[in-house]
Amino acid sequence: MSLDVVPGRTLEIPLVVSAGELVSVASSSKDYWDTILVLLDSNGVPVLGADDSVKYFAAFDWTTPANGIYRLRITFFEGVITGALKVTRK
Fold first, then answer.
1. CATH of domain 2-89
2. Who has the most CB within 10 Å: 2, 54, 59, 88?
3. Secondary element (H or E) of residue 48
């Protein structure tokens, strides 16, 4: 998924998962090199966060504890950056 980021915007992506599933997510961009993300459960409680996982890009590998819909929030670390952000679920 390729997303356009404007200053001050955090993007939210729903992740539908099954219990015991390995979820791998990676971010990248040709416009800027520093991303940050947080994964929230269905109640909005943070499950994990990532920053500088692969050089300066956020990424994670996570085994899900239960079925559900989680929310991935991601943005550029600097709140004034504009550009295209690529988020990949492997």
1. 2.60.120.380
2. 59
3. strand 46-51
Residue-level pLDDT at 45: 96
**87 within 8 A of 53, measured Cβ to Cβ:** no
Of 49, 61, 74, which Cα lies nearest the Cα of 22?
A: 61
Contacts of 45 (CB under 8 A, 6+ apart): none
Name the token pair of 2: 């390729």
Q: Encoding tokens for residue 43?
A: 């109640």
Q: Yes or no: say if 72 and 25 are a contact pair by the CB < 8 Å rule.
A: yes
Residues 6+ apart with CB under 8 A from 35: 27, 28, 29, 51, 56, 57, 58, 74, 75, 76, 77, 85
CA–CA distance, 76 with 83 (Å, rounded to integer): 9
Domain boundaries, the chain: 2-89
The predicted-structure confidence for 21-38, as pLDDT tens digits, reads as follows: 999 999 999 988 899 999
